[in-house]
Amino acid sequence: MSKKLFAAVDKYIAKLLGPEDKALRSTVKSMKKAGIPPMNISANQGKFLQVLAKTANAKKILEIGTCGGYSTIWLAKALPPGGHLITLEVDPEYADIARQNIIKAGLDTVIDIRVGKALDLLHTLDAEDMGPFDMIFIDADKPPYTEYFDWAIKLSRPGTIIVADNVVREGKILDEKHPDEKVQGVQRLNKTLADDERVTATIIQNVGVKYHDGMVIAVVN
Ligand code: DHB
Ligand code: MG
Fold first, then answer.
1. Residues by chain with Cβ below 5 Å of ion ligand 2
2. Residue of the nearest CA to atom 8 in ligand 1?
3. How much distance in Å is there from the Cα of 85 to the middle of ligand 1?
4. Which of 142, 213, 215 to mutate to test the pocket of ligand 1 (most atoms within 8 A of CB)?
5. What is the signed CA dihedral for 21, 163, 93, 32, rounded to 10 degrees?
6. In this model, does residue 1 exceed pLDDT 80?
7. Cβ–Cβ under 8 Å, residues 162 and 199
8. What beta strand segments (E) does the chain contain?
9. What angle do CA 166, 154, 148 make, to 5 degrees?
10. How far is 216 from 138, CA to CA, in rounded Å?
11. 26/23 Cα distance (integer angstroms)
């Protein structure tokens, strides 16, 4: 019952404050057509990321996990002129679809998609001295989330905002013996954050059109 209400309120908010434009609607459609699981964030979560990006005055954004490019487009639209976003994707098919969506959104000069294993690409970004980023969004495979977070800090500066998606997973994180390696991956990150003096962090629960989940919101000290 409350699930229905959360979804209805989410739709109400999105209609008022987070309407999808043509490029975002077409991105969702392209994912459906390609049979990509609907792992994209919701419209309101996209708008929320934009609010954070603006709060951080972000000119350089890093995204780990492009998927179809839905959150990539929301984030890139929050950039000022001359801003730049680098997004990492392991699946070449997903990257191709994202590239088409980004072109349709007119953002191909703003967004750089790099294809490969995130841990390798992060290493390269560091070697190329591409940091520090003003905002980093982690939304890739869950088992290495703690490693991604470590890299995010390495590629940041004091004040950088780091967000990590899917760290609540319908409350499955409450089960310390949960067998799902995705749950274990985010549990490991959440636990590490408790003693991590490099950041000031919290977790926001999300309810709405997507299933019950949550995001880590952290700022680098
Ligand atoms: C999964 C991954 C996501 O990034 C997401 O938002 C939802 C689910 C998954 O791998 O299960
Ligand atoms: Mg996600």
1. 139, 165-166
2. 39
3. 21
4. 142
5. -50
6. no
7. yes
8. 60-64, 84-89, 111-115, 135-138, 161-165, 199-206, 213-220
9. 25
10. 9
11. 5
Read off the DSSP letter of residue 171: G
pTM value is 0.98
Protein residue with least CA distance to atom 5, ligand 1: 39
Atom of ligand 1 nearest to the CA of 139: 4
Residue 107 CA to chain centroid, in angstroms? 17
By alpha-carbon position, which residue is closest to atom 10 of ligand 1? 141
Q: Per residue in 136-173, pLDDT tens?
A: 999 999 999 999 999 999 999 999 999 999 999 999 99
The domains of the chain are located at 3-220
What are 186's two structure tokens?
């985010």
pLDDT at 20: 98
Residue recorded with tokens 């404050």: 17
CATH number attached to the domain at 3-220: 3.40.50.150
